[in-house]
Amino acid sequence: EVEKIQIKITSLRLAESRITADETIQQLFVECRLNNFLAEETPLSLPKPTGGQRIHYNYSTVINVDKEDNHAEREYLKSILLKPDLPADSLKFTVVSDPPEDEQDLECEDIGFAYVSLKEIFQNQRDIIEQDIDVFDSQDASAVIGKLTVTVEALSALRSVHEECK
Protein backbone atom coordinates (compact mmCIF):
# COMPACT_ATOMS: atom_id res chain seq x y z
CA GLU A 1 0.00 0.00 0.00
CA VAL A 2 1.37 3.36 -1.00
CA GLU A 3 1.63 5.63 1.99
CA LYS A 4 0.66 9.11 1.07
CA ILE A 5 -1.69 11.94 1.76
CA GLN A 6 -3.57 13.11 -1.29
CA ILE A 7 -4.74 16.67 -1.40
CA LYS A 8 -6.93 18.35 -3.94
CA ILE A 9 -7.81 22.03 -4.01
CA THR A 10 -10.92 22.16 -6.13
CA SER A 11 -12.40 25.63 -5.92
CA LEU A 12 -12.81 28.83 -3.97
CA ARG A 13 -15.88 30.95 -3.38
CA LEU A 14 -15.71 34.29 -1.58
CA ALA A 15 -18.37 35.86 0.61
CA GLU A 16 -18.81 39.63 0.65
CA SER A 17 -15.98 41.00 2.79
CA ARG A 18 -13.07 43.40 2.78
CA ILE A 19 -11.47 41.01 0.30
CA THR A 20 -14.15 41.35 -2.33
CA ALA A 21 -14.23 45.11 -1.78
CA ASP A 22 -10.47 45.55 -2.09
CA GLU A 23 -9.58 46.42 -5.67
CA THR A 24 -5.88 45.79 -5.15
CA ILE A 25 -6.74 42.12 -4.61
CA GLN A 26 -7.25 40.73 -8.10
CA GLN A 27 -5.58 37.36 -8.51
CA LEU A 28 -5.61 34.56 -5.98
CA PHE A 29 -3.69 31.35 -5.53
CA VAL A 30 -3.79 28.80 -2.74
CA GLU A 31 -0.92 27.34 -0.77
CA CYS A 32 -1.17 24.13 1.21
CA ARG A 33 1.24 23.53 4.07
CA LEU A 34 1.94 20.57 6.31
CA ASN A 35 3.62 21.90 9.43
CA ASN A 36 7.05 23.14 8.41
CA PHE A 37 7.84 20.46 5.91
CA LEU A 38 6.05 21.07 2.89
CA ALA A 39 4.37 23.86 1.07
CA GLU A 40 2.72 23.36 -2.27
CA GLU A 41 0.84 25.97 -4.20
CA THR A 42 -1.57 26.00 -7.08
CA PRO A 43 0.46 26.78 -10.20
CA LEU A 44 -2.15 29.26 -11.35
CA SER A 45 -3.42 32.36 -9.72
CA LEU A 46 -6.96 33.01 -10.88
CA PRO A 47 -9.01 36.20 -11.07
CA LYS A 48 -10.80 36.93 -7.83
CA PRO A 49 -14.35 35.55 -8.02
CA THR A 50 -17.20 37.99 -7.66
CA GLY A 51 -20.81 37.69 -6.65
CA GLY A 52 -20.67 34.25 -5.10
CA GLN A 53 -19.06 32.62 -8.12
CA ARG A 54 -16.38 29.99 -7.75
CA ILE A 55 -12.93 29.89 -9.22
CA HIS A 56 -11.74 26.38 -10.04
CA TYR A 57 -8.17 25.33 -9.41
CA ASN A 58 -8.61 21.55 -9.68
CA TYR A 59 -5.10 21.19 -8.35
CA SER A 60 -3.90 17.92 -6.83
CA THR A 61 -0.76 17.09 -4.95
CA VAL A 62 0.58 14.18 -2.93
CA ILE A 63 2.59 14.13 0.28
CA ASN A 64 4.51 10.90 0.56
CA VAL A 65 4.85 9.61 4.10
CA ASP A 66 6.56 6.27 3.57
CA LYS A 67 9.16 5.17 6.09
CA GLU A 68 12.06 4.95 3.68
CA ASP A 69 12.17 8.40 2.19
CA ASN A 70 9.89 10.56 4.27
CA HIS A 71 10.87 9.93 7.83
CA ALA A 72 10.31 13.48 9.11
CA GLU A 73 6.80 13.68 7.72
CA ARG A 74 6.02 10.31 9.21
CA GLU A 75 7.33 11.25 12.65
CA TYR A 76 5.18 14.36 12.49
CA LEU A 77 2.08 12.28 11.74
CA LYS A 78 2.98 10.07 14.69
CA SER A 79 3.21 13.08 16.95
CA ILE A 80 -0.26 14.19 15.83
CA LEU A 81 -1.71 10.84 16.81
CA LEU A 82 0.22 10.46 20.05
CA LYS A 83 0.06 13.99 21.43
CA PRO A 84 -3.56 15.04 21.73
CA ASP A 85 -2.67 18.62 22.58
CA LEU A 86 -0.39 19.29 19.65
CA PRO A 87 -1.76 22.52 18.20
CA ALA A 88 -0.35 22.08 14.71
CA ASP A 89 -2.33 19.00 13.73
CA SER A 90 -3.78 20.51 10.60
CA LEU A 91 -3.08 20.98 6.99
CA LYS A 92 -3.18 24.70 6.51
CA PHE A 93 -4.50 26.23 3.32
CA THR A 94 -3.61 29.85 2.67
CA VAL A 95 -5.39 32.00 0.13
CA VAL A 96 -2.82 34.41 -1.25
CA SER A 97 -3.28 37.58 -3.25
CA ASP A 98 -0.91 37.62 -6.19
CA PRO A 99 -0.12 41.20 -7.23
CA PRO A 100 -0.97 42.10 -10.82
CA GLU A 101 1.86 42.14 -13.36
CA ASP A 102 2.01 45.93 -13.44
CA GLU A 103 2.13 46.25 -9.64
CA GLN A 104 5.30 44.34 -8.98
CA ASP A 105 6.14 46.50 -5.98
CA LEU A 106 3.20 44.91 -4.15
CA GLU A 107 3.95 41.78 -2.16
CA CYS A 108 2.02 38.56 -2.23
CA GLU A 109 -0.36 38.89 0.69
CA ASP A 110 -1.98 36.16 2.76
CA ILE A 111 -5.66 37.04 2.87
CA GLY A 112 -7.24 33.96 4.39
CA PHE A 113 -6.58 30.65 6.11
CA ALA A 114 -8.43 27.34 6.12
CA TYR A 115 -7.62 24.19 8.04
CA VAL A 116 -8.17 20.45 7.82
CA SER A 117 -7.37 18.56 11.01
CA LEU A 118 -5.54 15.32 10.32
CA LYS A 119 -6.31 14.23 13.86
CA GLU A 120 -10.03 14.57 13.18
CA ILE A 121 -9.73 12.55 10.01
CA PHE A 122 -8.22 9.79 12.10
CA GLN A 123 -10.68 10.13 14.97
CA ASN A 124 -13.66 10.10 12.61
CA GLN A 125 -12.05 7.39 10.45
CA ARG A 126 -13.17 9.35 7.43
CA ASP A 127 -11.33 11.19 4.68
CA ILE A 128 -12.50 14.58 3.55
CA ILE A 129 -13.85 14.40 0.03
CA GLU A 130 -14.82 17.54 -1.87
CA GLN A 131 -15.79 19.33 1.30
CA ASP A 132 -16.34 23.06 1.72
CA ILE A 133 -14.15 24.37 4.51
CA ASP A 134 -14.28 27.86 5.97
CA VAL A 135 -11.67 30.39 4.95
CA PHE A 136 -10.96 32.79 7.81
CA ASP A 137 -9.83 36.36 7.31
CA SER A 138 -6.09 36.70 7.93
CA GLN A 139 -6.78 39.96 9.78
CA ASP A 140 -9.73 38.70 11.81
CA ALA A 141 -9.74 35.00 12.62
CA SER A 142 -13.43 35.10 13.58
CA ALA A 143 -14.55 36.33 10.16
CA VAL A 144 -15.26 33.80 7.42
CA ILE A 145 -14.44 35.26 4.02
CA GLY A 146 -15.29 32.28 1.87
CA LYS A 147 -15.28 28.55 1.28
CA LEU A 148 -12.52 26.42 -0.13
CA THR A 149 -13.52 23.06 -1.58
CA VAL A 150 -10.87 20.49 -0.80
CA THR A 151 -10.20 16.78 -0.67
CA VAL A 152 -7.76 15.36 1.87
CA GLU A 153 -7.24 11.61 1.72
CA ALA A 154 -5.05 10.79 4.68
CA LEU A 155 -6.80 8.02 6.53
CA SER A 156 -4.89 5.03 5.19
CA ALA A 157 -1.56 6.75 5.84
CA LEU A 158 -2.65 7.71 9.34
CA ARG A 159 -3.83 4.16 10.05
CA SER A 160 -0.49 2.82 8.93
CA VAL A 161 1.37 5.27 11.15
CA HIS A 162 -0.93 4.42 14.04
CA GLU A 163 -0.23 0.70 13.64
CA GLU A 164 3.43 1.50 13.93
CA CYS A 165 2.87 3.46 17.16
CA LYS A 166 1.43 0.50 18.96
UniProtKB/TrEMBL annotation:
GO terms for cellular component: photoreceptor connecting cilium. InterPro entries: C2_domain_sf, RPGRIP1_C, RPGRIP1_fam. It comes from the Eukaryota. GO terms for biological process: non-motile cilium assembly; retinal rod cell development. Gene3D superfamilies: C2 domain. Residues 3-164 form the RPGRIP1 C-terminal domain. One of its GO terms (molecular function) is thromboxane A2 receptor binding. PANTHER family: PROTEIN FANTOM, RETINITIS PIGMENTOSA GTPASE REGULATOR-INTERACTING PROTEIN. This is FTM protein. It comes from Anthoscopus minutus (Southern penduline-tit). The gene is Rpgrip1l.
